What does this fold into?
Amino acid sequence: MRRLVIAILLVLRFAWPLPAAEPAGAPMTITVNSWDLSDEADVVARLIALKQLGVTSIQTYIYWNKVEQSPGVLDWSAYDREARLYQKHGLKWVPFVIVGPWYLTPDFVRADPAITMYRCLEHGRDSAIPSLWSPRLRDYVRGFLARFAEHFGPMGVLESVNLGVTGDYGEAIYPVIGNWPGAYHSHAGYWCGDALAAADFRAHLRGLYPAGVAALNQAWQTRYASWDEVRPFVPGQAPSERAWQEMLAWYRGAMTDWAEFWLATTRELLPGTDIYLCTGGDMAPEHGSDFSAQAKVAARYHAGIRITNEASSYPANVRLTRMVASASRFYGAYFGHEPAALVTPDGMLGRQFNAVTSGARQLFAYLTPETIIRQPDGTYAAGPAGRHYLRNHALMRVQRPVVGVAWYQAAPARAEQAQDRRDLADLSTAVRRFVDYDMLDDRLIREGALRDKQILLLFKNQVMPAEVLARIRQWVEAGGIAFFFDSRGADFDGRSEAYDQLLGLTAAADKVTGINLITVRDPAAYPSIASLADLFGTTALVGLAPECETLLGMEYAPNLAVAWRHPVGAGRVYAYFGPIDLKVDEESWVTAKRVPLRFLRDSLRQCLAEGLLPAEPASLNLDEPDVYKVLTTEGLWVLNLRGTAATIPVDGQPVEVPAKSITLCPPAADAQP
It folds into this structure.
């Protein structure tokens, strides 16, 4: 039934007066959190100062349990006063409408016998958060949203509405960490242990395997006697890689379906208002979030995504937010950024740069003492963070990034551990210190997001669906340049032949380990690596196809290849199995010489010399630490986080970028992504 309702809404949506898409160059909306409003004179002074900084709206958490303490009896008066106050002083309002989390769900909802709570697989214990599989919860959500829209929709104060759909705090993820220790059973894990979830899992698998449980057994390497025996499982109990991947796809898909219900309902009730789906985390499998899927359904309803995971490190923030940005731009959703906690003034500068150069429409920030500072006369002046608002206000515009480099974000493998994910996160953060990238997952690649990319980066990939590998191969054959760093994967059924063939490995290929000196076969082609003394490696391969060209080898074993390139149609595959030393590892005897980035730069210059690429990526920077570049349709944006000015070449001319600043340089005539 719920899919039928959504289908009907899809038919009707084109008749709604939907929000207009923001053109490139349109002002970004800047939102901050609300605060204690008891001292109205102080509140007014703050609002005046915030408006001077360029803030456009104030966000308020809507506590359902305060509005509706008894069923059907609603009191909006506290929020009426707040909304009118902001409106009076020329600011808009962003209500964060949340249904489900423990801290604001009314007691009468949790006491409803028709409500099912999330139950974890790890302990078989219930949370105090209603399960998204509970049909009764949909009635509560729709009812509360309808009354909210009826009351506030006509007021003309809404800048946008932020939707909090489930979880501990409202993000579109399963429970991870509770609000107060001991308030309810909560932990990072898999919250699909209730009977309704298990039934939905079986229904999903019946759709995948209409031939019956025997077909499932053959694909999963299992021995279920009937569908009744099939239940969700944790990764360590997955019977096969395919079983794990299909269970994860269902778990994430259930969250996406729940988000779509919210988006469809809200769009029906508030047809002309910007809507943001609040999501968070980093797509750890237990979170159940699928950012590209969430962006796709948001676009379906002319809505957006609010990603709530930023901190104070710009390169880390790119890693955390870029999947949402890449998917939203590809599918046509808008998006905004929010930090997970307070950030430093320099962190705010980096957040501004990330929002602008990602193409965000909205930037949310928590007020800190560094934002505005109370003066002796009761007014407020800009603090260290606030001064970044003032300096960069004119730059806070919606942009269209031009990004020709893609980072492949694979689905977590069955054997992948939390430490593996942290290592990969560190790698993607380190790579952004030197080059900008979009993030592409299996869905985006299947649906054509590689079309405008020239370079694809894969690090430590273990598993890739066969159809995605085939898409990558087609893209390389058409002229793409793919870099496989420490990656030799297999499909969901453990088959690696197609992967090896793309890398240029024969059936006799083998991986060998041992400490040895790395040699450079052509020092003129790889000068930045050839300049390194005593470069050690521990991994190499034998059994390359005859058309492969060895680029890095081992000193005492000339048949071993540490890195090579493989011609595939009009493109190239570069494979690298040397040290992954993008940052200092305190426990390692290998010093950080950033060899993968040196390999990348020298290889790109090789491609340029051979006419395989038109130009080096505009964002590539291996020489100026804490300086970041991004190309958009308006020009080259540069962030300098250092305490001193930096001089960088732009279109062949030196450009000085002041300390701790954002600079927009005119577009170079021959600039490439």
